[in-house]
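Open question from group meeting: does this chain pack into something compact, or does most of it stay loose? Before anyone orders reagents, we agreed to write out a predicted structure and look at it together. Recording both the input and the output here so the notebook holds the full record.
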Amino acid sequence: MIIRHVKTQLIRQRSTFSALLDASFKSGAVLKSLSTNIYENLALEDWIQEHVDLESRSLLLLWRNMPAAVIGRHQNPWQECHLGLMREKGIPLARRRSGGGAVYHDLGNINMTFFTSKKQYDRQRNMRTVTSALKDLRPGLDVRATERFDMLLNEQFKISGSAAKLGRTAAYHHCTLLCAADRSLLSGVLRSPCQGIKSNATPSVPSPVKNLTDEDPTLDCEIIMDAVANRYIRDSGLNGPLILIDPTDELCHPGIHRLTRELQTWNWVFGKTPKFTIDTCFDIPHEAVRPKVMLNMEVKYGIIEKCRIEVPSDWLPLHMCEEFSTLLVGSRFCPSDIAALFVAVSRANPQTCDLQAKLNLLCTKLTNVM
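Structure tokens returned:
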């Protein structure tokens, strides 16, 4: 019979967190983050892997986030996410250091990170821990792990995705678990409107999803996290409380603020995107006509390397399209940079009201692509 609530302990140590583990939790522990910030929790994962001795110790970290989209290290955010919707909703984008596909996080999504030495790394064992915990709670639940280390409910609905990072001596495997996530926002955020992108970036594999609460409304995130913690403690032979951990505490985790800042930079989130091309066209509604714009770009590390914009010459002079195409080269592939460039050029070269209106429309459509 599983204990529903795990004993918790908030430790405010004077030494670093790794020193505390060495002194009191030599065989392992279950941790629970006090943060719901995606960048802080991703930084905590990397800090643990870098600073904690995992040669003879295993750890489980439980964490949740406020709404966020997270892509794998080798993914293209313009292919994976609806960035315009995310800007509208104020939903941040993060790139994790592990591989895998794009996922949506909110407080209805549980995240679990299993830390071990590289030699003890075993995704199958970790997935068994989660499925066993769910069976402990509700024996009638039809849940199973797949060969891709996803987890299915009723053999068809994906409730968990999986990714990993293997270092020289240490490794971590993390997975999600859909408990009560906003599925409408999930599907909207993970559906890119961009057309014509060609890239060698790792693509996500779309799957039908379902929340565990859709199957059993009596479940909630806290109940499930307690069950996973208890199962992990039992399977690992641990004897200790669930430790509450604050990833914003620089004294306990020296250097973690730097890791958090790095994960938020444009150069990491967007600039690490593998080289891609975009070849697309779109209409611009303007009075009684809808001129078609042809756009061709090459983007490397998030920087536009080549650009060609074609608009009917009777709508916008050819030399203006060529000028803007040239000016865009070297700019970041992002709305703010493109909009600022258009404003600067317009101020330096005042146009008639009609031409200025057309340029504004063209700028808006270009930034919508980004």
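Observations to bring back to the group:
Residues 250 and 256 are 6 Å apart (CA to CA).
The longest strand covers residues 109-117.
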